[in-house]
Design goal:
3-stranded antiparallel β-sheet, single chain
């Protein structure tokens, strides 16, 4: 459909590339071609739009075969309008200058024309074909006949139509007839399925018998091997007992020898250990005695030296004090006494003490 817009009494048409537009003004062809775009006045313009793209027309119709059986034909015809000028002259492709919509239904007319032409040729073929042949080879025969018939149809070129391709999708009989036709094939398929089932069961039974025989043979062989295994186990047990007895004897002898050697080694070790312990004790006693003597000597020497030092200090002290005057000795004595007195923070003198001191001082003066 063309795109038409309005501007101040004028109209602007913009067509698609697949649409052939013809513009007549006052009976004269002004614009003609696909994908046009132009301005026009609606009162003086006659417009037609013809589609030039390929179009598919699906059709379904009923026909009757030579044995008077009804079938349904489903087909598709692909066509195009090869001469837009002829098509616009034969069919009403005019459009409304305000909306761009077709005034009539030209494509429906084309569909009716093609459907009737194709149906006529298909009916001619099926009328001379039996139902079985139609269902087997009818699709190809109908397609070829319809394609040839439409190519030779004089009205189509006169209308500017070109048929591109014809496809027949299916030929179907009535549902009851179709079920009846399917019955023999279904029965045959069912028989083949049953035969296959019986054969499969027979094969399964044969395989089960073979499996049972194999299992029985396996059990017999297993029992024989178990008997051999029991005999071999008895032989192995006897041999193992003999080997264990011999090993125990060798082990006992080795254990006795090892015990004797251990006892001898322990006795020798004990003697050596006692001798070593006695020697160590003797050495420790000697070392302790020597250390005690050295310690006593050191203490005696230290005591002697300390006594000599004290004697020397006392002699020096006496010598120094013997050479000093008596007043100095009194002063030193007072100083030493003052150093040894306890610390006195404060002294409280009562009147009685002061009176006694004064009395003594007064009496001393008198004396």
């Amino acid at each position: 459909m063309a795109d038409i817009t309005r501007r101040l009494g004028w109209r602007h048409l913009r067509g698609a590339p697949t649409a052939h537009v013809r513009h007549h003004r006052s009976g004269k062809l002004v614009h003609d071609g696909p994908g046009l775009s132009f301005w026009f006045r609606s009162l003086s313009a006659a417009l037609s739009e013809v589609p030039v793209d390929d179009r598919e027309l699906a059709m379904t119709f009923h026909a009757r075969t030579a044995d008077f059986q009804d079938v349904t034909v489903q087909a598709t015809v692909t066509y195009r309008i090869s001469d837009p000028a002829v098509a616009a002259a034969r069919l009403d492709f005019s459009i409304d200058p305000d909306t761009g919509v077709w005034r009539g239904a030209p494509l429906e007319q084309l569909g009716t024309l093609l459907t009737e032409a194709a149906q006529q040729h298909a009916l001619d073929v099926l009328a001379h074909t039996s139902l079985a042949s139609a269902l087997t080879d009818g699709v190809t025969a109908v397609r070829e006949r319809v394609a040839v018939g439409l190519a030779a149809e004089p009205r189509l070129p006169a209308t500017g139509i070109e048929v591109v391709a014809v496809r027949v999708v299916a030929l179907r009989p009535e549902p009851e007839v179709e079920r009846a036709l399917r019955t023999p094939a279904r029965e045959q398929i069912q028989q083949e399925a049953d035969r296959a089932t019986y054969e499969r069961r027979a094969v399964a039974v044969e395989r089960e018998r073979t499996i049972a025989e194999n299992e029985l043979s396996s059990k017999i062989e297993l029992a024989r091997r178990e008997e051999q295994l029991v005999e071999q186990r008895g032989t192995n047990t006897r041999r193992e007992a003999e080997e264990n007895a011999a090993a125990d004897k060798v082990r006992a002898e080795a254990e006795a020898t090892r015990s004797v050697r251990l006892a001898e080694a322990e006795a020798t070790g004990s003697v050596k250990l006692a001798e070593a312990e006695a020697q160590r004790t003797e050495r420790l006693a000697r070392a302790e005695a020597a250390r005690t003597v050295q310690l006593a000597q050191a203490e005696a020497e230290a005591a002697r030296e300390v006594g000599e030092a004290r004697a020397q200090a006392q002699a020096a002290w006496l010598r120094v004090h013997g050479e000093v005057d008596v007043e100095v000795l009194h002063a030193l004595t007072g100083t030493r006494l003052a150093e040894n007195l306890p610390h006195i923070d404060s002294v409280t003198v009562s009147p009685d003490v002061v009176t006694g001191l004064l009395s003594r001082l007064g009496g001393g003066d008198r004396g």
